Amino acid sequence: MNLTREARVAVVGAGPGGLVCARVLQLHGRSVTVFEREAAFDARPQGGSLDLHPETGQAALRAAGVLDRFHALSRPEGQEWRKVDHVTAAALEQEWPPGDEGAGVEDRPEIDRGHLRGLLLDSLAPGTVRWGSAVSGAVPLADGTCRLEFTDGTSEVFDLVVGADGAWSRVRPAVSDALPAYTGVAFVETGFDDSDVRHPALARLVGPGTLVAESGSTVLFAQRNSNGHIRTYVAFRAPQDWRTAAGLDVDDTAAMRAHLGARLDGWAEVLRYAMLNGDHGFADRPLFALPVPHIWEHVPGVTLLGDAAHLMPPLGVGVNHALLDGAELAQALVGAERVDDAVRAYEEVMLPRSADLAKRCAEGLGHLVP
């Protein structure tokens, strides 16, 4: 019967959405195992800063019982946002964090992705996450369960497998043959350490939050993270093979600087500095998205959440809805008698919501990077 109170649940992927799902299940005394291909929490850098929204990300953390911990680690001042002229670097627009005078203004404090992941991992029972467990696929079985297969040749059967394994999900093929497609927008990242001491002019310009400058189809973002770190990104329209066509190796810092410098010709020197003089070279992060809408016929024993279900351009909503997905799926499992009923109820809400959101994000990317 696959009763939820006795269900064997596997979450594939130890990102925010999968971890929230596991945490809410454990809060209600349910069994869950998280499988993560990375060898350890600190196996790779965790990315930039995230703003969590009250009705989605923060609501999920409240359901997980970790909202107070989030507020202790978050940076309300990180909500400051400023747009500057690309030639003069003079301020054109500015938004301030909501304060006492900002009644009714939505409070979206920032938190480093690594800090968010860390607080969620700390909230789980020891041994919940099996590190170094790379999944190769998920196979729904005739009895409504699902066999989870690993790259080492082993497998385990669960009453529910939750694909929370991101853009290139190994679980997604169990319910959908959709693949992410290139959006036409290239994204290049660099970063600065100890910016207040080592890069003071840039630190003053960026402030405690986010800086934006644009010219045509080129947009520069600089974002303050914790510990004086600044991440800088430039986005522009280009073919997916733009680096190959230009003969560029992302590890050839000098060549990348020359190429990006030509793109930023005529920009204010401090903005050029923000993109061309990072402390760790460059990372190439082309933007991909799943088809809109991405929906599937319900398959017993398996479902998706977060980027595995609705990868969309990074316009500040993806992680919020991944967290909401994880909390709502876990709550559905806690509240229903049978696993299949819970998953159907979750998908009936999540799929149309994410389809609408993905449509708006695709339109937003078109406006942001025309």
UniProtKB/TrEMBL annotation:
Name the source's superkingdom: Bacteria
UniProt domain FAD-binding: residue ranges: 7-78, 302-356
Q: Which cofactor does it need?
A: FAD
Q: Which GO terms describe its biological process?
A: response to antibiotic
> A Pfam family this protein belongs to?
FAD_binding_3
The entry's keywords: Cytoplasm, FAD, Flavoprotein, Monooxygenase, NADP, Nucleotide-binding, Oxidoreductase
Q: Where does FAD bind?
A: D51, R113, D307
Q: Which GO terms describe its molecular function?
A: FAD binding; monooxygenase activity
Question: What Enzyme Commission number(s) apply to this enzyme?
Answer: 1.14.13.-
Q: Which family does it belong to?
A: Belongs to the aromatic-ring hydroxylase family. TetX subfamily.
Assembly and interactions?
Monomer.
Q: Which PANTHER family match?
A: FAD DEPENDENT OXIDOREDUCTASE DOMAIN-CONTAINING PROTEIN, MONOOXYGENASE ASQM-RELATED
Q: What is known of its domains?
A: Consists of an N-terminal FAD-binding domain with a Rossman fold and a C-terminal substrate-binding domain.
Functional note = An FAD-requiring monooxygenase active on some tetracycline antibiotic derivatives, which leads to their inactivation. Hydroxylates carbon 11a of tetracycline and some analogs.
* Name of the protein in question: Flavin-dependent monooxygenase
Source species: Streptomyces paromomycinus
